[in-house]
Write a structure and sequence with these properties.
- The chain has 672 residues and is of the alpha/beta class.
- The chain folds into 4 domains: 3-96 and 206-287, P-loop containing nucleotide triphosphate hydrolases (Rossmann fold, 3-Layer(aba) Sandwich), CATH 3.40.50.300; 113-192; 295-387 and 538-642, Rossmann fold, CATH 3.40.50.300; 394-525.
- The strands form 5 sheets. A 7-stranded parallel β-sheet has the order 13-14-12-15-16-11-19. Strands 3-2-6-7-1-8 form a 6-stranded parallel β-sheet.
- Helix 27 (580-594) links the parallel strand 15 and strand 16.
- Helix 6 (117-131) packs across helix 7 (143-155) and helix 6 packs across helix 9.
- It is globular.
- The N and C termini lie far apart (92 Å).
- Bound molecules: adenosine-5'-triphosphate and magnesium ion (MG).
- Residues 295-555 form the UvrD-like helicase C-terminal domain.
- This is DNA 3'-5' helicase.
- ATP binds at residues 31-38.
- GO terms for molecular function: 3'-5' DNA helicase activity; ATP binding; DNA binding; hydrolase activity.
- Residues 10-294 form the UvrD-like helicase ATP-binding domain.
Amino acid sequence: MSRIISAALDDLNAEQRAAVEHGLEPLLVIAGAGSGKTKTLSCRVAHLVAQGADPSRILLLTFSRRAASEMIARIGNVMAGDVRIPWAGTFHAIGARLLRELAPVIGIDPEFTIHDRSDSADLMGMVRQELGVATGAKRFPMKGTCLAIYSRVVNADESVADALAAAFPWCREWEAELKRLFAAYVEAKQKQNVLDYDDLLWLWAEAMNEPALAREVGARFDHVLVDEYQDTNKLQARILLAMKPDGQGVTVVGDDAQSIYSFRAADVRNILEFPKAYARETRLVTLEQNYRSTVPILEASNAVIDLAQERFTKNLRTTRSGGGAPKLVSVRDEVAQASYVAECVLEARERGVALTQQAVLFRAADFSAPVELELAKRDIPFVKFGGLKFLEAAHVKDFLAILRWAQNGGDRIAGFRTLQLVPGVGPAKAARILDAMDETGAYGVVRNTAPPAGAGEAWDTLKGMLDDLRGATWPGDLELAARWYGPLMNERYEDARVRTGDVEQLQRIGSTFGSRTSFLTELTLDPPNSTSDESGPAHKDDDYLILSTIHSAKGQEWKNVFVLNVVDGCMPSDLGAGSTAELEEERRLLYVAMTRAKDELHLITPQRFYHTQQGKGGDKHVYAIRSRFVPTNILPKFEQMAWAPGEGVDGVQDRGPLPKIDLAARARGRFS
Ligand code: ATP
Ligand code: MG
């Protein structure tokens, strides 16, 4: 083993080291936040490679593409050189890649395109309309809900009836209609040669039901390692077991106290039942030392999670002494909350804490709006993760739809979108054009259709572009699509200039991928949060604050962390306060948020917040009380304070003593 590796291993504690050096029997590392699970996993990969394992025979499954590249970078650091781990990524991305390879033997076309959740919901809506399911029924679930039910059925490996009973009891009356709808949805996807996110896991899992295929795929990898295993679902556990029935070379790490994805059918039982799942006996390693947070932060986090009804991992200890108690800050409203965050952030920057070392976390993406406004006002740069993604912007979707349709003429959602970019073509017209579609694909259907009224030259240029795209090589396609779309975008959007910048950015991102297929696949599966997420900030030394949903903050850490809206109705969200299980998941979310902090933690409780009813109207201000997850008996773990704008925070805005005035005397004087 190289000296460099052994030096890196010297940093590890005995348990971490045991996990790193463990042999081939199935290995489960289960431990709390910040105990070095991800670090241990990276060191294990480095150790394996140093001992001669072939990096191309290692499968590394992570929660996001970013997490995969961070881990590969860590592995490179330990080995003091670049390491390529070609099979590293999310379950979905790896699934897409394997399915393209396996396509000829599993009866699918390898040229499939992938629908993101909003495309899938659109297709669900389209199918419902064509089928006439429950037409006019006002209470029938919306297309997004239909998709969520379908997704639950697939990912939890359940019947429609069970999924409805477990998670959508208010939709139970529609079981028969939903079954018909789902059957037609599946048929539509197959006809169009598109896969949705759920297909990527389901097809992979089904393929692995065939022993010969499972053996073939399993034999490609000597090691399979999974981070954040607590957030995998039934299909993912099935895939793992089928590839490696004896568990040889399988390592999973996770923390049951951080399981926060059950709304996507993640099942914490996967990690708890892992030791029983495999033919060979599992080695269990628990880690008890936290290296991330100071004592007071860890104690407060432990106090919050101690109130959970069920938990497997033990409390952690830390040696990171010093630092004050986490702050529990009461402010008047969300506007005051925003100024508090801005002032603290600036004050910390004065002290030398870079903005990228500070994060603002929130339960729901729209909670950050007032903070975003405040940051913009004060010229504090930030990047937001989670919530509305860059790819959800209309112009970005347009641009990708053009490429997707060129790739797969059968992709109706992509065609529908592209056609409607042409002036004079609305939904009905676009649908009629698509109905005439035959095997000549996108180009054929456009060529054979008379130019719609009002289309002008956009129709001819569309024809030309689709023709050119047939012969284009990557990344030339990007240029062709941008050239056609540019003028249409200028007419469509008032802020076309900003959007043009985004399209140019997409072209730059695209040119870093090897092919149109890999670009479209990767971008659809793990969309960048903003253009800067994918390509890094414009300048290397740019400093920016992190805004993130708690879900997207998984696995990460920052010196200073601010958690917004720690009040009932927001945390727990009133959407999640239904069943005990949902409530427990909300508690774990707060725990995940708190344990992201290394040095400073602020939980903020506005006394009122703006309550949006998700499309139901009736938005209003409501008065709020401190989250029930911070009950009175654990308050001593916090420093409680009230803050109002103008007060400043320590060190930043010393405005001196306020002038003394005697209003009582003035009131008396008014009439004397
Ligand atoms: P989470 O549950 O939040 O994903 P984790 O268990 O994966 O956390 P890591 O992110 O791997 O924890 O590690 C947390 C921090 O502790 C990192 O900064 C890491 O470098 C540091 N760390 C882990 N182990 C050690 C160690 N033995 N010595 C020093 N620092 C360590
Ligand atoms: Mg981790």
